[in-house]
Amino acid sequence: MPAYRLRGAVRATDGTIGPPLIDETITAEGRQEAVRRANAREATPADEQVNALWLVDEGGNLVWSLRLADREG
């Protein structure tokens, strides 16, 4: 089963993204399932600071991000 990497960090007002505060591996059969699992995960104390989330596949390709989700929603 493919492994995806969920990462989260603080995005500054100038758009720069700081070092990841969230770095988790999500295994799922496909991209849609990985996004669903990322959205369904339990919040942690580190999440309170995070305002940028993104999910990449095993090749490092962007699968989902808050910005992409905003456009798709």
From TrEMBL:
Lineage: Bacteria, Pseudomonadati, Pseudomonadota, Alphaproteobacteria, Hyphomicrobiales
Protein name: Uncharacterized protein
